[in-house]
Write a structure and sequence with these properties.
alpha+beta; 8 strands; about 300 residues
Length: about 300
């Protein structure tokens, strides 16, 4: 039966149909806490409007998409077979300690090692993540700086995922990631508060006391942080909107090279630039169309007026 949104034909025979089916037939990709190899699909990552701009589609086709490895940490509780895509967050795997990024308050210790590892202890003392089967690469790490939200089509494999992380390990990993994210955000907020305090103090120098702001003793509630807004957009995003769309596989043995996750985010940024340019082009076309329609309406109105006056 074809999907109305994508035209994709879903094979109902590929889905489990009865209790007599083998247990592994109940597995689908992406599965909770599984390792996956993924490649970005630039064209599918565009919004429906941008896909209608030939220049945007052609620009996406020219992009080079590398393969990356990631851990699927969570997924939506309900999978709808006929939905074109399913969204979920991932932790991208990187080889070697993640670099320090002072301007974002990121430190190498804000990471979690993944077995196998040649290092006796992690710089933060954290125990390495253990998978159901050892990964093909050593000295790899996960960090919240490698988190991202993606979407992909659901796949019914012939066998269950080979590389997974059990629930307890996944919960521990999520707790560590959340803690690191909280610390980085708190440091950022503290620095911003200090800067605002310095600006207020400098602004008040030389001004009469009566002209200075008087505190009310009530904290002003700011809007949601950028991270919170991103999370809301992730769960509420429509299929027609732009979002990083990937092709996935559970077979890590096919991965020939563990690419730098910095390249992954460069690919994402390149698609975002194309999307932005396409949106501007669509906006210009709509404005031109509205202008032409208005001119046409005025011409018709003038022609009708002339006809009445001549009659």
């Amino acid at each position: 039966m074809p999907n109305a949104a994508t035209g994709t034909v879903f094979d109902n025979n590929a889905m489990p149909t009865s209790d007599s089916e083998p247990e592994d037939r109940w597995h689908y990709l992406p599965e909770f806490a599984m390792w996956a190899a993924l490649t970005i699909d630039p064209v599918a990552s565009l919004s429906a409007g941008a896909r209608g701009v030939p220049e945007a589609v052609e620009a996406c086709k020219q992009l080079v998409s590398k393969q990356y490895v990631a851990l699927v940490t969570r997924h939506q509780p309900l999978y709808i077979p006929w939905a074109p895509y399913h969204t979920y967050p991932i932790h991208l795997l990187q080889q070697g300690h993640p670099p320090a990024v002072p301007e974002k308050f990121l430190e190498p210790s804000m990471s979690v090692p993944v077995l196998p590892t040649t290092q006796e202890t992690h710089i933060s003392g954290r125990a390495p993540v253990k998978s159901s089967e050892m990964l093909p690469w050593s000295d790899c790490f996960l960090a919240f700086s490698g988190d991202h939200a993606v979407r992909s089509s659901m796949i019914w494999p012939s066998e269950p995922p080979r590389w997974t992380v059990d629930q307890r390990e996944n919960i521990r990993l999520d707790d560590l990631m959340f803690g690191d994210s909280f610390v980085a955000r708190a440091k950022k907020d503290l620095l911003q508060t200090d800067k605002e305090a310095d600006c207020d103090e400098a602004d008040s120098i030389g001004r009469p006391e009566s002209s200075r702001s008087v505190g009310t003793g009530v904290d002003v509630v700011q809007g949601d942080s950028e991270e919170d807004q991103d999370e809301d957009r992730f769960w509420q995003r429509e299929y027609s909107k732009a979002m990083t769309t990937v092709r996935i596989t559970q077979d890590l043995s096919r991965v020939t090279e563990l690419n730098d996750i910095a390249d992954y985010f460069k690919e994402v940024q390149a698609i975002e630039r194309i999307e932005k340019e396409a949106a501007s082009r669509v906006k210009e076309c709509r404005a031109l169309r509205s202008q032409n329609e208005m001119i046409r309406a005025q011409e018709i109105h003038a022609a009708v007026g002339e006809r009445h006056s001549s009659g």
